[in-house]
Amino acid sequence: FDHDKVLVIFVLGGPGAGKGTQCAKLVQEFGFSHLSAGDLLRAEQHREGSQYGDLIRQNIKEGKIVPSEVTVKLLQNAIAAELEKHKDKTEHGWGEGKGRFLVDGFPRQMDQAHIFDETVCQSKFVLFYTTTEEVMLERLLERGKTSGREDDNVESIKKRFKTFVETSMPVVDYYRQHDKVVEVLKGVQITEVIHLPSTLKEFPM
Ligand code: UP5
Ligand code: MG
């Protein structure tokens, strides 16, 4: 696909910060395609014949980062598939090879940021959701009762928090230095759609 025609916004935040929930709202409002790196990895883990199943399962359970090549490849394939699927769409700046994507839960390690910038495209900006670990823990344990996610248990959650602080926060700080971070502070209501910069609505593509 033509990398100049792809608009990407990274959606970051700790485990359970509400990335997926907020992305679903932004999809409805602004016509984005939502790509959750975690969802793509879980789908690949369960795909028959995947050579990465065990690798992904182990890392997710331990709250560690799956090797970047795997995730970047999955994201690239997903972007290409979405562009193909929506090639006749014209609303919200789609069509003629153009598309807009919320990339949720990625990049979460510095090398991923560089690989994506160089091989896919530069993100327009980063939406960063924050709340306390206490709130996130409570949400994830609640979700764990029905989610079936192998990492929604106390042991895995604690490891995910640690990885987030040590490995993923430096990515947020890196984008902060480039003035790319829009921070959405704790207290955002689940029913509320956060206000995006107005430029997004009329993105010139
Ligand atoms: N909820 C949400 N917002 C709420 C609100 N405002 N008030 C009250 N409740 C709210 O929300 C979590 C729960 O909280 C839900 O039940 C929701 O209803 C409620 P959700 O929107 O799902 O939060 P989200 O931030 O998406 O949480 P998630 O658990 O998905 O975040 P993680 O970052 O931990 O998970 P992800 O799927 O991105 O990654 C999982 C693992 O995959 C990683 O740990 C890692 O091992 C691996 N991974 C990689 O290796 N590389 C990658 O690039 C990406 C992932
Ligand atoms: Mg999520």
Our Rg estimate from Cα atoms comes to: 17 Å
Which runs of at least 5 residues are low in confidence (pLDDT < 50)? 189-193, 201-205
Bound molecule types: P1-(adenosine-5'-P5-(uridine-5')pentaphosphate, magnesium ion
Query: What top-tier CATH class fits best?
Result: Alpha Beta
Lateral strand order in the biggest sheet: 2-3-1-4-5
Q: From the helix content, strand content and strand pairing, which structural class follows?
A: alpha/beta
Number of helices: 7
Supply the CATH architecture: 3-Layer(aba) Sandwich
CATH-level-4 superfamily name: P-loop containing nucleotide triphosphate hydrolases
How big a fraction of the residues is strand? 5-15%
| H-E string | EHEHHHEHEHHE
Our count of domains comes out at 1
What about the largest sheet? 5 strands, parallel
Query: What is the CA-CA span between the terminal residues?
Result: 15 Å
The percent range for helix content is 40-55%
Mean pLDDT: 90
What is the 3D form? globular
- How many beta-strand runs? 5
Protein name: Uridylate kinase
GO molecular function: ATP binding; UMP kinase activity
Cofactor: Mg(2+)
Main location: cytoplasm
